[in-house]
Write a sequence for this structure.
């Protein structure tokens, strides 16, 4: 059996994708160092999915709601990592203005505004993420900003330059005991 090797690889750990020119079936992610299988397994998966036992086990697995929710959460996390990697080119995304690196606070910002028109008030936001992750949408006009910097950017587009700046830091003196 001849093994086909994929040329575009995606790391499920860090969300990075890269072009692979090697001839071996095993490689490592150049960004996070995790091992990666480069074999194209679509035909194998089709043969495997035809077995009756496999189909029954998948039906049973999908019948449990928590399994479906967990799969959706994993997919959403990986999609977010892939989008952040496409925009920044780094597996450690951070705000383009202040350097905040908490992924819960990071948002995609349209540099010239107009993001609301593109996403149609949330109706196509998932498609927006998928297009970025797959590389079908250009990311030249996008950047990652944290929520406060993104709010300041929106105000600057509306009112010109503002007399404020966001500085992230950790101050132990303000902690309540």
């Amino acid at each position: 059996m001849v093994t086909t090797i994929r040329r575009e690889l995606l790391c499920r750990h860090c969300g990075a994708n890269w072009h692979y020119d090697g001839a071996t079936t095993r490689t490592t992610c150049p960004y996070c160092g995790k091992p990666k299988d480069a074999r194209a397994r679509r035909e194998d998966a089709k043969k495997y999915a035809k077995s009756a036992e496999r189909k029954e086990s998948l039906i049973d697995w999908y019948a449990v709601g928590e399994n479906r929710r967990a799969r959706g959460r994993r997919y959403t996390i990986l999609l977010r990592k892939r989008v952040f990697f496409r925009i920044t080119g780094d597996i450690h995304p951070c705000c383009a203005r202040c350097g905040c690196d908490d992924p819960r606070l990071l948002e995609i910002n349209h540099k010239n505004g107009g993001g609301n028109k593109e996403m149609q008030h949330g109706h196509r936001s998932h498609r927006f993420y998928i297009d970025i992750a797959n590389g079908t949408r250009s990311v030249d006009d996008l950047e990652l900003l944290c929520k406060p910097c993104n709010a300041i950017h929106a105000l600057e587009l509306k009112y010109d330059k503002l007399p404020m700046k966001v500085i992230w830091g950790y101050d132990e003196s303000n902690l309540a005991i």
